[in-house]
Design goal:
By secondary structure, the protein is an alpha+beta fold. It folds into four domains: about 120 residues, Beta-Lactamase, CATH 3.30.450; about 170 residues, PAS domain (Beta-Lactamase, 2-Layer Sandwich); about 90 residues, Orthogonal Bundle (Helix Hairpins); about 160 residues, Histidine kinase-like ATPase, C-terminal domain (Heat Shock Protein 90, 2-Layer Sandwich), CATH 3.30.565. The strands form four sheets. It has a six-stranded antiparallel sheet. A five-stranded antiparallel sheet has the order 2-1-5-4-3. It has a five-stranded mixed sheet with strand order 13-15-16-18-17, with helices on one face. α8 crosses α9. Bound molecules: adenosine-5'-diphosphate. This is histidine kinase. It catalyses: ATP + protein L-histidine = ADP + protein N-phospho-L-histidine. GO terms for molecular function: ATP binding; phosphorelay sensor kinase activity.
Length: about 550
């Protein structure tokens, strides 16, 4: 203890009391360093805290007792410059255990401002009975009373990572702030962000359970003891929010955030701080963390899939729309060109047949009107406006549709026969849409017959009422090769085609139009050979049956 220890007898004490004796009795660790950092006094509480005796330490430089590799020069210079230092430091016991101590260090100077010594008061950050640290001290599951009751077993085995935190610093800070009249903690912390930074170093973890050790990728609970800074390292502003919640008197604060583990990984966690309940307990806050990385990853994956799906759906709708326009407009445009060419040929003839040219010009006009109606329908589809629903005589609709492709049928030498039951009830529908279905089905039949080079070349259409009289059934049977069993279940899918240059959109459109009309469309192979398509459409209600 030497000369420096004698300086403890200075005026702070009454002359009748020996300061060294008082320091010997103190519960806190009291260490005195000489101006060169050599330990001059080491009280019995220091022996209990660090495990070294005064005999082993006094007369030796303090650096010999630090954790290996601990830098100390800057710290030492800071005390010399500022005159004091207070905070948490990592220390080592004689048994080699690392722990955190809360220390206050004061540089004492003589009247000529010469440095006399540095006095350090220190305590273990964990609120535990004084005693030499042993392995279990950092483990939250180790009961300080030594018993291993149900409560501690529960804590030890609970799957949630649990930290016990000494939050005295916050409690004292908030008491002081309230006394100073601070009511708006958010505004205060906005103005003084350094307070949050300071708290990260002064609010300390005092114990942790096994799950916490595992979550942090640590080897033992002792590694988790110390300032809570590491717990909030990957969570921007979390410390601030935790402080605000406590100041505002809430019982707990929970949020989903991120945790940086000791092996450098970032995990998604659900963070909960449960605050002490004054007045019984003002110092212990519990923090629990639940690793939700997999859940967050799965949710992100799901969101990504949903976005991709929406994107694909948009692209596919756009693609369908484009394909639809191309497919539907192609036929009337081709008819217009054919009719115009024929018309020109007739005009070039010497014996001008005005009637024939007039007829062809009429066909050109109706082809153009049809093309424009299709464009309008597509526009309606794109604008999501409702399709028209008016009472229609399906025989008329089919007659008009056949008219559009009569030339194709004739050019390929196909016999088209249409059987129509008389006095059929009307259906409610969109004329252009239903014509499209018929045109699509007939074009497919024409192509099937042509491609197969069938000898028997016919298309047989029939329009009849169903047995229960609730729907009109339109059936188209051709003399083509029919549809293979493998393809039968796919032909109504968008972009399914077996044709070179086919778009595979025609039947998909037919299907959606039939369904939108409350009906259905089916394909099969006719017992006599060839494809057989049947579309049924519900008949219009009685009030719509007049005047059609
Ligand atoms: P695309 O005509 O562009 O191929 P569709 O959707 O109209 O597109 O037809 C899809 C497929 O259904 C055709 O490629 C063909 O294989 C089959 N198909 C449709 N109608 C017939 C038919 N009448 N006879 C035989 N196969 C047909």
């Amino acid at each position: 203890m030497g000369e420096t220890a004698k300086s403890l007898e200075k005026p702070a004490f009454s002359s009748s009391v020996n300061a060294v004796e008082l320091a010997d009795l103190a519960a806190e660790s009291v260490i005195v360093y000489d101006p060169n950092g050599v330990i001059a006094y080491w009280n019995p509480a220091s022996e209990r805290l660090y495990g070294w005796t005064a005999t082993a330490t006094v007369g030796r430089h303090f650096s010999a007792f630090l954790a290996p590799g601990t830098p100390y020069t800057d710290h030492w210079n800071a005390i010399l410059e500022k005159g004091w230092w207070e905070g948490i430091v990592r220390r080592r016991t004689a048994a080699g255990r690392l722990f955190y101590a809360y220390v206050r260090q004061t540089a004492r100077r003589d009247q000529r401002d010469g440095l006399v010594d540095i006095v350090e008061y220190g305590r273990l950050v964990a609120p535990r009975p004084a005693g030499t640290l042993h392995d279990a001290d950092a483990d939250i599951t180790a009961d300080p009373t030594g018993s291993d009751d149900q409560y501690h077993k529960l804590l030890r085995n609970m799957p949630t990572a649990l930290w016990q935190v000494d939050a005295r610093y916050s409690a004292e800070l908030f008491t002081r702030l309230r006394a100073e009249g601070v009511t708006d903690i958010r505004a205060y912390l906005d103005e003084h962000p350094e307070v949050v930074e300071f708290a990260k170093d002064h609010v300390v973890v005092t114990a942790a359970n096994h799950s916490a050790v595992a979550l942090m990728r640590a080897n033992e609970a002792a590694e988790l003891i110390g300032p809570i800074r590491y717990l909030v390292a990957a969570a921007p502003n979390l410390a601030r929010r935790v402080m605000i919640a406590r100041f505002e008197g809430r019982r707990s604060h929970t949020e989903e955030t991120r945790l940086l583990t000791f092996d450098g990984c970032v995990r998604d966690v659900s963070f909960s701080a449960t605050y002490p309940t004054p007045p019984e307990n003002i110092e212990t806050t519990f923090i629990t963390l639940e690793d939700i990385t997999e859940r967050v990853r799965a949710q992100a994956q799901l969101r990504k899939l949903q976005m991709e799906h929406e994107r694909a759906a948009r692209i596919s709708t756009l693609g369908k729309l484009t394909a639809c326009i191309a497919h539907e407009v192609k036929q009337p445009l081709a008819a217009i060109v054919t009719n115009a060419e024929t018309s020109l040929r007739w005009l070039a003839k010497e014996d001008l047949n005005i009637e024939k040219v007039r007829y062809l010009t009429g066909r050109i006009i109706s082809g153009a009107i049809r093309a424009s109606e299709i464009v309008q329908r597509v526009q309606r589809m794109a604008g999501k406006s409702e399709a028209m629903r008016i009472p229609l005589q399906i025989a008329d609709v089919i007659g008009e549709a056949v008219c559009f492709i009569q030339d194709d049928i004739d050019a390929r030498d196909i016999a088209l026969e249409v059987d129509c039951e008389p006095c059929l009830p009307a259906v409610l529908g969109d004329r252009v849409q239903l014509q499209q279905v018929i045109v699509n089905l007939l074009i497919n039949s024409i192509q099937a017959i042509s491609q197969a080079g069938s000898e028997r070349r016919f298309i047989h259409m029939s329009i009849a009422i169903s047995a229960n009289r609730r729907s009109i059934v339109i059936s188209i049977h051709d003399s083509g090769p029919g549809i293979s069993d493998d393809n039968l279940s796919h032909i109504f899918e968008s972009f399914f085609t077996t044709k070179d240059g086919g778009m595979g959109i025609g039947l998909a459109i037919c299907h959606s139009i039939a369904t939108e009309h409350g009906g259905e469309i089916r394909a099969s192979n006719h017992p006599d050979g060839g494809a057989h398509f049947q579309m049924s459409l519900p008949t219009a209600p009685a009030e719509n049956q007049q005047g059609t």
